[in-house]
Amino acid sequence: MTATRVDADVIRRLPKAVLHDHLDGGLRPATVVELAEAVGHRLPATDPDELAAWFYEAANSGDLVRYIATFEHTLAVMQTREGLLRTAEEYVLDLAADGVVYGEVRYAPELMLRGGLSLAEVVETVQEGLAAGMAKAAAAGTPVRVGTLLCGMRMFDRVREAADLAVAYRDAGVVGFDIAGAEDGFPPADHLAAFEYLRRECVPFTIHAGEAHGLPSIHQALQVCGAQRIGHGVRITDDIVDGKPGRLAGWVRDRRIALEMCPTSNLQTGAAASIAEHPITALKDLGFRVTLNTDNRLVSGTTMTREMSLLVEQAGWTVEDLRTVTVNALKSAFLPFDERRALIEDVVLPGYEAVLCSSPLR
């Protein structure tokens, strides 16, 4: 098949899948303003456009710790039942508007307890909001399925509690687990007991690794903790010389371990220099199972459409490349095999064909 370039309007209509997206990093600016006023939280700006610009500029520090610090304002409005219901529902509707047909959203329940909710109440409230959003999206003719990953914060001591929640709610919309937070100084193996517990309970998990810290964090996540996917993983390129993967990189490629790559976010945290030079393109060309993700749509000022468009415009990606990473994401989604296959065969592949057959190409 001839490689095909497409414009932004076509990209917007392509079916998409996202595996790495944080609930507390994807709020609508206007929602943050309204909820902050309701709970008495002071924001750096009260105009939605100005607030969106503040988030984006504050995150462009080149430092993961400072990037994470911007979340104090989104988390401040996610401490009540009303705030969680609204943000979860809007999260789903925003995915649907962006052409996403499958998404996995992650968040740390332990960060949402200041309003008096219990850990269980946080999870149940978020699931209620996500379900409401999925119902509205389906009624509008833009169905999207969203699964939840519960996170433990790697620098705190409640990771095992979060793992217990993932097991308890695995039949209620929770599809997996993750640890989040500052990587450097907080290795995945610190929480080995939680990961061993999840493996015994057959709950899949991904681990943030290879972003702010290098190959040792990826090795620990995979070979010590047993992660099925890697969040970010851009530093795997440290184990590739002259296009030849080393032992760890070869393990990742040959065993089809998905890399949840987030180009814009990686530029903001200093993990990559530019979209054109981002490792996702070289890794794709070397046969790694790369997936494309937004990470934090508000903080990074992005969408899946924007991430795809940037790769087309600045890294020479084709529609075939976009289809590949979309299928990659669904192959590695934390869903049963038959459900993953149905999404690929019945939704994504026909969706690409329909859009391309009805659109001018360039």
From TrEMBL:
Substrate binds at H22, D24, G181. The keyword Metal-binding applies. It catalyses: adenosine + H2O + H(+) = inosine + NH4(+); 2'-deoxyadenosine + H2O + H(+) = 2'-deoxyinosine + NH4(+). Keywords: Hydrolase, Metal-binding, Nucleotide metabolism, Zinc. Binds 1 zinc ion per subunit. Its cofactor is Zn(2+). The active site is at E211 (proton donor). Its EC number is 3.5.4.4. CDD domains: ADA. It is an enzyme of class 3 (hydrolase). Belongs to the metallo-dependent hydrolases superfamily. Adenosine and AMP deaminases family. Adenosine deaminase subfamily. This is Adenosine deaminase. It comes from Streptomyces mexicanus. The gene is add.
